[in-house]
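Final report, closing paragraph on structural work. Over the funding period we assembled a curated collection of sequence-structure pairs, and we close with a single example.
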Amino acid sequence: MTPSLLRQFWHFVEQAQVGRLLSMDDHSLQGWLVTQFSDVYPLEHHQRHHLERYISSRLSLIRDVVSDCTPRSFSDRP
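Its predicted structure, as stored:
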């Protein structure tokens, strides 16, 4: 995957609906991300395959990033 495509992917993750992403199991999350991302950024077959493997190996990181994007209420702030 190119650096440009990786930047676009992480931007896509940060802009996604937090509740939706956190409610999915790993398999569903991977499938949803690949499908939604490739709808916005059309991918060739080999790129899609690399993206699937990339997401699979980084599901924990994706969940952490998404969790950090969750807006906190004023009472949650230190």
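Confidence is low (pLDDT under 50) at residues 72-78. Residues 3-70 form one domain. We thank the funder for supporting this effort.
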